Amino acid sequence: MPKKEVVDHSTTDANCIVMLTDAEKRARGIIDAAKKRKQALLKKAKDESTAEIDKFRKEHEENVAKLQKQYSTGQDTDALKIDKDLEVKKIDLRQAFKANGQATLKHILEIILNVEPKVHENLII
């Protein structure tokens, strides 16, 4: 009968545990490095997008300012012309009121005070 070798399981189990612990540490290190790379990439992407947004905003603000300047000059002169016309019309209305105010007031008072009561034509009696 052949001889059986006696294997000490406690030593092999301890070696396996040490190997598993080492593998776990290496895996944790790999995962931590991957997380750091991911965070760095996200930060870089965020910074790039912020810079691009700022550039886009600046370009469009300049464009809007240029358009406002281009079209606001006409609006200012139009507004001044309208104000001037309104002032002329106000002066004309004041002069017309001074000239015809008493006659108009007299006419309005005559209409109000000279009331002739009548029955409405649609009233059925």
TrEMBL record:
**A Gene Ontology cellular-component term:** vacuolar proton-transporting V-type ATPase, V1 domain
| Organism this protein belongs to | Brachionus calyciflorus
Q: Which GO terms describe its molecular function?
A: ATP hydrolysis activity; proton-transporting ATPase activity, rotational mechanism
**What does the protein in this record do?**
Subunit of the V1 complex of vacuolar(H+)-ATPase (V-ATPase), a multisubunit enzyme composed of a peripheral complex (V1) that hydrolyzes ATP and a membrane integral complex (V0) that translocates protons. V-ATPase is responsible for acidifying and maintaining the pH of intracellular compartments and in some cell types, is targeted to the plasma membrane, where it is responsible for acidifying the extracellular environment.
The UniProt entry, under Pfam families, shows:
V-ATPase_G
Subunit structure of this chain's protein: V-ATPase is a heteromultimeric enzyme made up of two complexes: the ATP-hydrolytic V1 complex and the proton translocation V0 complex.
Q: What InterPro entries does its record include?
A: V-ATPase_G (IPR005124)
From the Swiss-Prot or TrEMBL record, give the protein name: V-type proton ATPase subunit G
Q: Which UniProt keywords apply?
A: Hydrogen ion transport, Ion transport, Transport
Q: What family name appears in the similarity comment?
A: Belongs to the V-ATPase G subunit family.
Q: What is the lineage of its organism?
A: Eukaryota, Metazoa, Spiralia, Gnathifera, Rotifera
